[in-house]
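Students often ask why we bother encoding 3D structure as a string. The short answer is that it lets us treat folding as translation between two languages. Here is a chain of 143 residues written in the first language.
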Amino acid sequence: MTTSKKGRTLDGDAGFLLSLAGGRLIRNLNRELESFGLRARHYTVLMATAEHGGLSQRELGELLGIDPSAVVALVDDLQREGYVRRDPHPDDRRTRLVVITDSGRDAFAKASELATKVDDEALGALDEGERAQLVQLLRRIVS
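And here it is in the second language, the structure alphabet:
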């Protein structure tokens, strides 16, 4: 256990623990998604488009907390695979909406199974109530 001059420890620092847990989850999910040629960020774009329908790249970036230039690259990757398409916005001809395709829905369903497996492994020490409480607390933190 490492103690700083202020008496804080790594195992008591919420930011460090959240970062460590998140990093492990992302690495494990990336390892599982590798067979699809996807990474966790691709998966979250698929999830957002499946959940919200057509979103602009700007809206995707805001929703996912991703830099707009990174969103463009992710959408390009997913479009090359046939998982999403860019449709014209009905009200703004300058904007394109990122929409999940049927192939994208299939890939998302398979990737979701892998993500559930990764979550179950990572959260195996928690019961259902604790998992629900963790998600509720994380929602409060990010909102």
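Translate back mentally: The first strand starts at residue 55 and ends at 56. Keep this in mind for the problem set.
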